[in-house]
Amino acid sequence: MVDFGGWELPQQYTSIRDEHIAVRKVAGLFDISHMGRFKVTGAAAFDFLQSLLTNDLSRIAEGRAQYNLMCNEQGGILDDLVVYWGDDGFFVVVNAANRERDLDWVRSHAPSAVDIEDRTFELALIAFQGPKAEELMPARGLDDLPYFGFRPAQVAGISALVSRTGYTGEDGFEIFVAADRVVKVWDAILENGGPHGVLPAGLGARDATRLEAALRLYGNDMDESVNPYEAGLGWTVRVDKPNFIGRAALARVKSDGPRRTLVGLKTAPGDIARHGAAVRNQDRQVGIVTSGTHSFFLGHPIALALVEVASLRVGETAGVDVRGRQASADVVQLPFYRGSARSAAASAKS
Amino acid sequence: MAGRLYTKSHEWITVEGKTVTVGITDFAQSQLGDVVFLELPNPGRKLDAGEGFGVVESIKAASDLYSPVAGRVTTVNEQLAAKPELINSDPYGDGWILKVELTGDLPTDLMDEAAYKKSTESQA
Predict the structure, then answer these.
(1) Into how many domains does chain A fold?
(2) I want to staple B99 with a disulfide (CB 3.0 to 4.6 A). Which of A31, A61, A86, B75 is the partner?
(3) Pick from B33, B57, B62: CB nearest A16
(4) Cβ A323–B34 below 8 Å, yes or no?
């Protein structure tokens, strides 16, 4: 068990290797109840969220979710999050480590006609992810739930809210259920799926699968010093929206072009490039590794690196610091792996 | 000599005549998590007791490996290149790492099973 944003979470239940492979071949079950969840309601809720976030919520409707960024006035990323549009208001799901900071930010900008409620502790959130997730869910009627769709459903006979979203690049569901009933749902999914190879999966498998899918991790790949264009997330920014925090700064970055960019690196087995490691083009340092791990599924280490724009191109070779020496790295196309997640509009765009 | 002896840095040895087999303990492998890769010396390399001889890398971190004895490396477990997970699944059996031909006597500060177990209880 490790401390993750103030919560005690398992790195693995059995082995990272087994769990990672289970997610890619069958399905894995993640407990992600550490993520911050706010309910945003009231007559002005829609307009408020539009003014706070970079993406355009008018492109979705009730019953849909949307990946979004919250930026400061300078266009630096405060958090990446998902907004879920329900029948009685919006759910905003944020990174665990940023929950309190985000709540303060949201509350301090909210007008009086908007209510913000922190539901993190009374609602559990679990994620069932993998190519066989739909087939093995103890629930009916989810086959017509579209990617990023969101609706109430009975899972193992228990009322829940289910979205077709995830952080692994695989098809799957995120299930919001009352904290005092989640264990029943958890057990039912494992009992039903166990004989088919479903495993509970921890942080190690979660990090490896999201990195393979090139999904960004706040705190690693981006922070307040990084703007969405540098993080390869310009597609979530709608500068043509009337106004939102950071709009002017971001419009400038968009027209000038970002100065940095995220690239994908592949290294030889044994050369795990870790966060903070220097990345070089020949002898010149051009950036640093933001996320890196070994992929048990692909059989080699993978990494994301934030580098000067145009300093490294796909197909070239870079140098990366590994345990005090320079290792060779191939600059590769992202994502490292394309799983069963639906829709070309997946957040794996980069 | 019956049974394994242990170091403070979580290596174990068994001794048969002058041949010392070296590995890392079950405690060490569970702290490391899934082993991904090992950097090991070539046969013929001379080691002092306490000298770093390689690295064991997991998702979490890379850990140095220290020789429990003074001697010369005779064999390296070649299975570990393709199957580093043997360190996790069988740390005292197929997950053995090196065989060393002992020079001189065994160090006197190696722990027996009971003493090692006690020392890990305070670390777990």
Answers:
(1) 2
(2) B75
(3) B33
(4) no
Residue A281 is assigned to a structural domain of this protein: yes
Find the residue in A nearest to B37 (Cα): A270
B83 interface with A at CB cutoff 8 Å: no
Q: Work out the angle at residue A174's Cα, subtended by the Cα atoms of residues A336 and A275, and round it to the nearest 5 degrees.
A: 40
Q: What is the pTM of this model?
A: 0.91
Domain interval for residue A83: 2-211
Q: Are residues A207 and A267 in the same domain?
A: no
Give percent of chain A with pLDDT exceeding 90: 93
Rounded to the nearest angstrom, the gap between the alpha carbon of residue A78 and the centroid of all alpha carbons in its chain is 14
Q: What is the pLDDT of residue A342?
A: 82
- Give the start-end residues of each E strand in A251-334: 260-267, 278-281, 284-295, 300-308, 317-322, 325-332
Which residues in chain B show pLDDT less than 50? none
pLDDT at site A147: 95
Measured between CB atoms, does B111 come within 8 Å of chain A? no
Do A108 and A42 fall within a single domain? yes
Q: What is the ipTM of this complex?
A: 0.80
- A244 occurs within a structural domain: no
- Whether omega before A335 lies within 30 degrees of 0, making that bond cis, reads yes
CATH code reported for the domain at B5-117: 2.40.50.100
Comparing A164 with A345, which gets the higher pLDDT? A164
A33 lies in a domain?
A: yes
**A350 assigned to some structural domain:** no
Q: Which residues of A have a CB under 8 Å from any CB of B? A: 11-12, 15-17, 204, 208, 269-270, 272, 293-294, 296, 301, 323
